[in-house]
Amino acid sequence: IHMTQSPSSLSASVGDTITIACRASQSISRSLNWYQQRPGKVPKLLIYGASTLQSGVPSRFSGGGSGTDFTLTISSLQPEDFSTYYCQQSYTSPIFTFGPGTKVEIK
Amino acid sequence: QLHLQESGPGLVRPSETLSLTCTVSGDSMSRVIFYWGWIRQPPGKGLEWIGNVDYSGSTYYTSSLKNRVSIHMDTSKKQLSLNLSSVTAADTAVYYCARSYDSSGYGRFDSWGQGAPVTVSS
Questions:
Q1: What pLDDT score does B103 carry?
Q2: What is the C-alpha to C-alpha distance for residues A104 and A85, in angstroms, rounded to an integer?
Q3: Mutate to test the interface with A, among B34, B35, B47 (most CBs of A within 10 A)
Q4: Residue B91 φ/ψ, nearest 5 degrees
Q5: A86–chain B Cβ distance below 8 A for any pair
Q6: Please, what is the Cα angle at B1 between B108 and A37, to 5 degrees?
Q7: Which of B83, B103, B54 is nearest to A45 (CA)?
Q8: Which residues of chain B does A63 touch, with a Cβ-Cβ cutoff of 8 Å?
Q9: B25 near B1, Cβ under 8 Å?
Q10: Can you tell me the mean pLDDT for B94-122?
Q11: B108 touches chain A (CB under 8 A)
């Protein structure tokens, strides 16, 4: 299963609401996870099962979608949210695939 | 609190075998709901899933590397190992070990090691 993300990068300001899209090459039901990777840091799980927030993740992060199309929305963007975000399918678990990533930069 | 720590050579010569170990502390490696995996990230690029091993030792690999990669788990030592043969410069990356927690039918990497940078160069 091939994963794509759009856009590949975006510029936004603190306080903005942004949405990142992830698409699977075939239906993956809701088996879609989102990770955040700050520069030079280890990836961190944000959302699993398309929309379930991992423990400790702020509620300004939300996920949606099913089938082939998914979204990650960050409301009221904070300075620490400027990172690269990756989607990952687990429909074919234990064989996984990551998307190419979306870099969120400060405008 | 689960902790994963990668270790191994930071420099590997072309055509040789890259070998890394991940030591796990804070939880059992033998639970059915866990997979233990390796993910890599070339400099300036995205994440690439390499492979997983389950509680029974069964392994699963990405198709692009399956002819060169092997992953093993030693539950008595609480270690996960990665071997990647015939390396080239394209294998230069930070290598992460991670635990995939598979509950509710949604496997996800919820714990990661700090990453081991590996450079392939003569």
A1: 78
A2: 8
A3: B47
A4: -90, 0
A5: yes
A6: 45
A7: B103
A8: none
A9: no
A10: 94
A11: yes
